[in-house]
Specification:
The protein is of the alpha+beta class. The chain has three helices and ten strands. It has a seven-stranded antiparallel sheet. Strands 1-2-10 form a three-stranded antiparallel sheet.
Length: about 190
């Protein structure tokens, strides 16, 4: 009789293990914590290395309008002045890690800026990315806000799947981009 029970117990144990594994795998598949979230009505800057979305009120710049260093850009203007801009740069430096990319990105912030520091950030599609927060004052040039206007900036940087650096930069005159919308921009990033 013991010989008949052992296979039954073994089958039950195997069945239980299989069910637990299936439940665990289903839980992993249902989780979309690492997926990018694009709010309704937002536009998206699409590049070969990374995508980022922007709120309504921004306008995507054409190839001829944006800097030759930017793979994509969107701006928001008021009374003919740019009050916020979102840019994407690809391959802006040679780096082997998000930390190295962040060091290079930080070096590109204008002189006199107050860098608040850098920290790890979760971006969909990559396991390692950094965020740099900083502030500076507008020079009043190039169609920006009047000289001395406080500007708040954020750079999100790392490596895409081909180990090419990316930098998403968001600059906005103080009060022109809510913290909520800034966090939605961060959560909209999809690294390829």
């Amino acid at each position: 009789m013991r010989r008949e029970l052992k296979p039954m117990k073994t089958r039950r144990a195997c069945l239980a293990a299989a069910l637990l594994t299936a439940v665990a795998l289903a839980g992993c598949q249902d989780s979309d914590a690492g997926a990018a979230a694009v709010p309704d009505g937002w536009g998206t800057l699409k590049t070969k290395g990374v995508d980022v979305s922007y709120p309504s009120g921004y306008r995507e710049q054409s190839d001829g309008e944006r800097s030759k260093y930017n793979a994509a850009a969107a701006e928001r203007t008021e009374n003919g002045k740019t009050v916020s801009v979102i840019t994407v740069q690809l391959g802006f430096t040679q780096a082997d890690s998000a930390e190295q990319a962040a060091i290079a990105a930080e070096a590109g912030i204008q002189m006199g800026a107050d860098v608040k520091g850098q920290k790890d950030v979760e971006l969909a599609g990559t396991e390692e990315a950094r965020r740099i927060d900083f502030t500076f004052e507008s020079t009043g040039e190039d169609g920006g806000p009047p000289e001395g206007t406080p500007i708040e900036g954020v750079i999100l940087t790392g490596l895409d799947s081909s180990d090419t650096t990316f930098a998403i930069r968001v600059d906005a005159a103080r009060g022109e981009l809510s913290d909520t919308d800034l966090e939605k921009i961060v959560k909209s990033v999809e690294v390829h």
